[in-house]
Amino acid sequence: MSNIKGIQQIGFKQSQEGTTYFHTYNPVEGSQTAYRIAEANEKEIEEAVQLASKASAEFANMGSAKRAQFLETIADEMQVVTDQIVQVYCEESGLPEGRANGELNRTLGQLRKYAAQARSGRIGIPRIDTADVNRQPQAKPDLRKVGVPLGPVVVFGASNFPLAYSTAGGDTASAFAAGCPVIVKGHPLHAATGETVASAIDRAAQKTGMPDGVFSHLQGQGHDLGQKLTQHEQVKAVGFTGSHAGGRALMEMASKRAEPIPVFAEMGSINPVVFLPSALHNRGQYWAEQYAASITLGVGQFCTNPGLMLAVKGEELDGFKKSLLQNLSATSTACMIHPKLAENYNKNRQFLSDVPGVEVLLYSVEGETPVQLNCIQGEDFLRQRSAQTEVFGPSSLLVECQSQEELLSVIDHLEGQLTGSIIYESKDESDLALVQEHLGRRVGRLIHNGVPTGVEVCDAMHHGGPYPASTDARFGAVGGDAVDRWLRPLSYQNCPNDLLPAALQNENPLNLLRLVDGEYTHNAIPPNA
Amino acid sequence: MSNIKGIQQIGFKQSQEGTTYFHTYNPVEGSQTAYRIAEANEKEIEEAVQLASKASAEFANMGSAKRAQFLETIADEMQVVTDQIVQVYCEESGLPEGRANGELNRTLGQLRKYAAQARSGRIGIPRIDTADVNRQPQAKPDLRKVGVPLGPVVVFGASNFPLAYSTAGGDTASAFAAGCPVIVKGHPLHAATGETVASAIDRAAQKTGMPDGVFSHLQGQGHDLGQKLTQHEQVKAVGFTGSHAGGRALMEMASKRAEPIPVFAEMGSINPVVFLPSALHNRGQYWAEQYAASITLGVGQFCTNPGLMLAVKGEELDGFKKSLLQNLSATSTACMIHPKLAENYNKNRQFLSDVPGVEVLLYSVEGETPVQLNCIQGEDFLRQRSAQTEVFGPSSLLVECQSQEELLSVIDHLEGQLTGSIIYESKDESDLALVQEHLGRRVGRLIHNGVPTGVEVCDAMHHGGPYPASTDARFGAVGGDAVDRWLRPLSYQNCPNDLLPAALQNENPLNLLRLVDGEYTHNAIPPNA
C-alpha cells in the first residue's frame, strides 16, 4: 500500500537515514512486495536508544493508570487501521485473512489485558513490614518494597506471529505495563506490517502524552542491528521469540556485557504428546483427526506444534497410525510464510529422515507444503539425540515404545519443552499420574486430553519451559506474570509516607492487595504503625 | 574441638576419600587451627550431585509442610550444639562471641521464617483461570499454574558470614523451602564451622524422613570444586555471596553450559550515603558518631559497609568531617577474619589512595586493623571510575561536591549498589525527593536517616541491587521472595482435580491466597466451574 514508507520510527520522529534497503516477500504470489524498507543505520540506532534512556525516568514515574491509557490507545489506534494491517499482514505472510483477524484480535486483547493489569496496579504484590521501635536488642525498621522498571527493553519480533509476538505483541505490551520504554527490532519478513503497527503505537504515545522515546521501531535484515541493540549499555533487558541459535547467541552476548542483562528468549519446542492405550483403543480415530489438524494447523508454523508423539506398541497404536496417516494425507496445506522457512523446513525434514532408525511413514505433497510423518522405535530414539531436532512445519515423529517403562525413559530423555500433552480415557488409569509426573519435569505446560496448539492468554498460562524451550525456565511472554520480567525490587527503609510511591503509602491509595507484616490485605496502615 | 572430622557430608554418609588437606586459621592467635579438612575429590563431587538429583523428585513431591518440619528441625539441631558452633565460629573467624551469637540467632530465625512460609504454602501465588466451555469461537480451557522446584541447587558459603550466608544460610534455607536439594560448597575460611552446621542439617534430614541426598556439604580450597559443581549438568541453579570476580566468573560459566542455569550472586557494594546540609548543620556530630560506628562495625567486613559518603562542600561538611575523624581515630578495631582478607584490604586501601585526586584524611593504626578515611572532589570522582573500587574493611571515601547538581551527577555516575542512604533533617527539604529519585535508580534499598549496616530479615527487605551489586537485580537472598528464585512455573491445562497439586485443587485444601479469574481469593472453586 502506498502509505508504507519503509522508515524507522525513532521516538516521535520518522527517520530514513540508512542507505541499505530490502523488500519483503509475498509467498502466495512468489515475488517480492512493493514495500522497500530502509535498514536502520548506526546513528539511528544510537538515537533510538538514547531517547529511550532519556524517556525512562518520566515513563517510570508517570503512574500505571497513564500507562494503561497508553496501552488501550494502542489497541484503539490499531483497530482504526484493521483493514490496512490485515492486508499487509496477508501480503507479507501468505497467511489467510481469518488467521490475520484472529491474531489481531488476540493482540488487541493482550494490550487491553495488560492495560487492565496496569490500571489495577496488580503488578507484583507490594510488601510492607512495619516498624517496631521497641524491639530488643534493636528497633525494627519500617521496610516497604515494590517493583521498579529496569529501563529500556529491546524486543525482537517473531517470524511466525507478525502481530501477537511482534511489534505490539506480548513482550512490548508487558514492558510498557511495567514502565519500560521499548525498542522493537521489527522482523524483516513482515517489516511493512511492523511499520503499520509501529505508526499506531506512535500515534497512541503522542495522543496520551507519553515521553518522546518511549517507543522506537528499527528495521534490519541481518544480525547486526539486533547485536548492536543487545550490546548497548543503555539497554537493560531483551525479549526474543525465535530460533534456538538466535536466542542462545543473544543470551551469551548479554552475559558478556560489562553490565550483564537478562534475555528472555522463547526458542521453540517439539511438544511431546503421550497417548495412553485406553485413548487409542476407545477414541483412536477422534484423536487422529484432532492431531492431524494440530500438526498441520497454520502450516505447522507454531512453536506449540506437536512434533513428537509417544505411545506403547500394540493394536491400538496400529489403528491410530492408520487413521492419522489417512487424515494427514487428506490435508492440503498452504505455502509457508517465506521461502526461507520452507527451505529450513525441507532441510530439517531431510535431516530428521536421515537419523538412524527414523522411518518415513508419510510424505504427502497434496498441498503447497509437504506434510511428513515419521516414526522411530523407542530404543533408537533413546540412542539418537538428533531425533529431537525441531522441524518447524507440518511434520511429526511418532516414537513407538516397547513398554510403559521405555516410554517413561523416553520422556526422561527429552530436552526441555514448552508443552507436554497426555491423552487418555479415564483419570483413574494407573499410569496417568506417573506419566504426568515425568512429563511435568520436562515442560512448562501440561495439557490433558487436548492439543498443544492454541495458547490461551491468561494469568495461569505459562508459555515457556526448561531450556532449550526458553533461556530461563522461570519466565514466559504470555499472561500477567510476563510483566515481572521487566521489574526489579526496590526497598524503602524508614521512608516518610509522603515520599513513598503510591503503592506503598499508608493509605493504600491504589487499593492494592499488599503483603503487610506477613498477611495479605487491602487495608490501610495506621499512620504511626 | 575433637569432634570435627574434616570430612565431606554426602547425603547421609560421611566421606573422606580426598587426599589433599587444608587447615583453617585462627586470626586472633595468628596460627592455624587444629582442624584438618579433606578436600572433596571428583568421585565425591559426582556422588553428591547424583544423590541430589535422585532426591529431587521425592523432595519436590513431599509437600511443603514436611519441608517446613525439616527446616525447623535444622534450627533445633543447631540450637542443641550452640556452644560448639559459637566456639568453632570464633576460633575460625576471630569475630567476638556476641557477634557469633547474634548471627546464629539470625540464622535460626531465617530457618524458622522459611519454615513458616513453606508451612503456610505462601510461595508464589497460585494462578487459576477457570474454563468457559461456551466461549466463542472456541472453548476456554481450565488453566492452573504453580511453582515447581528447579532441582539441585549449589550454594557457595560467604567468607564474612560463617552462619547467616553460609551452610544453613538464606540461600540454603530458601532452596529447601522451594523443594530443591542443596549442595553447599563450604567456605574454606570456616570449614569446621561449616561441618558443625552440616552435621546438624544431616541429623535434621534423617530425623524428619528427608530423602538421602537432599543435602551435601563439600569442602575445597581452590576454584576447582565450585567450577565442577557449577558446570555439572544435574545442577540447576547457583546461589553465591562473595567477590565480584567470583560471582562474575560463575555467571559466565553458567551461561556457557549446554543447559544454561541461573546464578544468583550478591557481589558487594560501596553503599553510598548522601548527607544533606540540613542534617550536617543540625546533627553533624550525631551522624559522625553513627557513621564512624557503621564504617568500623565488624571491622568493616560487611557488604553493606558505607564505603562512600557524598555531601556538598561548606562549613557544615567541614564540621562533620572533623567530628567523623575524631570518632574514627578513637575507634579500636579487631583483626580481620583471615590474613587473606587483611591483605586484600591493604592492597585495595593502597589502590584507592593512589587514585588521582584521592586524599588520605585518616590512617589510624589504633587497633589491629587500620582505619582509613579518604576524600576526593566531586569532579575528580566523576573522572576516575576506579574511585568506586570496593575496599572491603573499615574504610570510607568522602566525595566533596561543589553543588547539589554535581552531587546528582556523582550519583548518576555510580555503579549499581546494594543500598543508598539519605541523611536529612526534614522530609520537606527541597532536594530530598530529587536525591531519592536519582539514588533509587542505582540501588536495591533506600535508607532514610539510618546506616546501611544491618539487614532486617523480612518480606519487604531487598538485599540485592543493579549490577555489579548482584548478577541479576531482580533477585536477592534475604526475605520471603528469595524462595521464588528456585522455582519455575508449571501450567496445568484441563487437568482433572484429583491429579492437580494441592495448591491448585478446587477445594483449596491448603487455604492459600490464589489469583482466580483475575481476583485474589481464598475461596474454593465450585467443582464444575
From TrEMBL, chains A, B:
Q: Which portions of this protein are annotated as coiled-coil regions? A: none
> What are the protein's GO molecular function terms?
oxidoreductase activity, acting on the aldehyde or oxo group of donors, NAD or NADP as acceptor
Cleavable signal peptide = none
Q: Give the protein's recorded name.
A: Aldehyde dehydrogenase (NADP(+))
Organism name: Aureicoccus marinus
Q: Give the PANTHER family listed for this entry.
A: ALDEHYDE DEHYDROGENASE-RELATED, SUCCINATE-SEMIALDEHYDE DEHYDROGENASE, MITOCHONDRIAL
User: Where do the Aldehyde dehydrogenase domain residues begin and end?
Assistant: 16-329
Lineage of origin:
Bacteria, Pseudomonadati, Bacteroidota, Flavobacteriia, Flavobacteriales
**Record's InterPro entries?**
Ald_DH/histidinol_DH (IPR016161), Ald_DH_C (IPR016163), Ald_DH_N (IPR016162), Aldehyde_DH_dom (IPR015590), Aldehyde_DH_Superfamily (IPR050740), ALDH_KGSADH (IPR044151)
